[in-house]
Write a structure and sequence with these properties.
Number of domains: 1
Helix content: over 70%
Number of strands: 0
Strand content: under 5%
Structural class: mainly alpha
Shape: globular
Oligomer: single chain
Radius of gyration: 20 Å
Length: 223
């Protein structure tokens, strides 16, 4: 069964995993902010939660959850709504973060479980997982193909997200001044909110299309 994963397909999967993991998104924005505010060591659980949590989600989607989304369309819309509110809450936390020793009560980096759970309401992460499983898992490979795709993503994702956290630690000294740090945190929070735009635009477009069809389609003939 493993023979169906050709070197060309595997190379394309690795390239997609790297490109989608290293580019800006909610995970990377929060990891850079965490690196600035809490340092690399305290951000490590957050990093591992992102990589292993996304790998686990990719595997579960590949084992059949994608089909459930197709059978129950409203489930994806419900997930989108939850994503909006959760990302807004995270943006508020980033905006009000403070580095030690000035950290206020409740100002702490995401834990492993929080970061892993966040993947399920992170629109970019869900898209990456669904696209990878539907595009790169060899046809007819079953659970083995799902495991390969999830494993490649987890191994590629960790060094990618670590780069963002490390980048945050490198600009930490320059941001030690209170005013600079506040500007940085509020900028990161604004970028998190801005990352909602593609998801909300797609949801609005789908709603407009569905209503258009409802208006255009003639009523069913009487029987």
């Amino acid at each position: 069964m493993l023979r169906t994963m050709t070197p060309e397909l595997l190379s394309a999967l690795i390239l997609f995993a790297f490109a989608s993991s290293i580019t800006p998104g909610p995970n990377n924005i929060m990891l850079m902010a965490s690196g600035v505010n809490f340092g690399m060591r305290r951000t490590l659980p957050h990093m591992l939660g992102v990589s292993l949590g996304h790998g686990a989600m990719t595997l579960i989607l590949g084992l059949g959850l994608v089909r459930i989304f197709e059978l129950i369309p409203w489930l994806r819309s419900a997930l989108t709504i939850v994503s909006v509110f959760y990302l807004l809450w995270l943006a508020w936390k980033v905006a009000h973060a403070a580095p030690p020793p000035d950290a206020r009560e409740g100002s702490r980096p995401l834990s492993f479980l929080q970061a892993a759970g966040f993947q399920w309401v992170n629109p970019k992460a869900v898209y990456m997982a669904v696209y990878a499983q539907t595009t790169f898992a060899p046809e007819g490979s079953g659970w083995i193909g799902a495991v390969i795709v999830a494993g490649v993503f987890a191994m590629t994702n960790l060094p990618s997200v670590a780069t963002w956290a490390w980048g945050g630690t490198q600009i930490r000294r320059w941001l030690r001044a209170g005013a600079r740090l506040r500007i940085f945190n509020w900028t990161m929070a604004a970028l998190l909110v801005a990352s909602l735009y593609p998801m909300l635009a797609a949801l609005l477009a789908a709603e407009v299309v569905s209503r258009s069809f409802a208006v255009v389609l003639p009523p069913a003939p009487p029987f």
